């Protein structure tokens, strides 16, 4: 599965999506996500999300990520949006997959980063 992390309005990304022969998930700025499950252990790892358009997708199945701007928002307030963005970015940036582009955010080390690094 390919994860496309993009801005809301981007015709180029839409054109690329039209040519894909792979499963994909797209996060854009207006897509509100809900984190269903986070599990990180020596036995199992899972980071499951859903949106109005995506039904319960485990990001463990993501094999490549295309960062093209954008951001993660939740169904809550600005503080919750920021928490969701930090959690999701921490998870995606440490994930050993092919990554294209850069995630632009004022990113700081946090507890999830440290825990995932310790697990490795």
Question: What do you see in this structure?
Answer:
The protein has 120 residues and is α/β, with parallel strands linked by helices. It has one domain. 29% of the residues lie in helices and 27% in strands. It has helices at residues 11-19, 78-94, 111-119, and strands spanning 2-6, 24-27, 34-40, 45-50, 57-58, 64-68, 98-100. β1, α1 (11-19) and β2 form a beta-alpha-beta unit. It is globular.
What can be said about this structure in brief?
This protein has 120 residues and is α/β, with parallel strands linked by helices.
Name its key features.
4-stranded parallel beta sheet, alpha/beta, 120 residues
Q: SSE order, as H and E?
A: EHEEEEEHEH
What does the largest sheet look like? 4 strands, parallel
Measured as a percent range, the helix fraction is: 25-40%
Tally of discrete structural domains: 1
* Overall pLDDT: 82
Outline type: globular
- Number of helical segments with 4 or more residues: 3
Strand order of the largest sheet: 2-1-6-7
Write the layout of secondary structure elements.
Elements: E1 2-6, H1 11-19, E2 24-27, E3 34-40, E4 45-50, E5 57-58, E6 64-68, H2 78-94, E7 98-100, H3 111-119
Parallel strand pairs: 1-2, 1-6, 6-7
Antiparallel strand pairs: 3-4, 4-5
């Amino acid at each position: 599965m390919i994860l496309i992390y993009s801005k809301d309005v981007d015709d180029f990304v839409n054109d690329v999506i039209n040519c894909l022969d792979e499963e994909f998930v797209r996060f854009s700025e207006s897509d509100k996500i809900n984190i269903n499950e986070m599990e990180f252990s020596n036995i199992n790892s899972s980071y499951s999300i859903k949106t109005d358009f995506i039904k319960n997708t485990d990001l463990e199945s993501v094999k490549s990520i295309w960062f093209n701007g954008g951001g993660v928002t939740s169904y809550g307030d600005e503080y919750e949006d920021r928490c969701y963005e930090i959690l999701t970015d921490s998870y995606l940036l440490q994930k050993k997959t092919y990554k294209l582009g850069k995630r632009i955010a004022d990113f700081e080390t946090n507890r999830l980063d440290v825990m995932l690094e310790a697990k490795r």
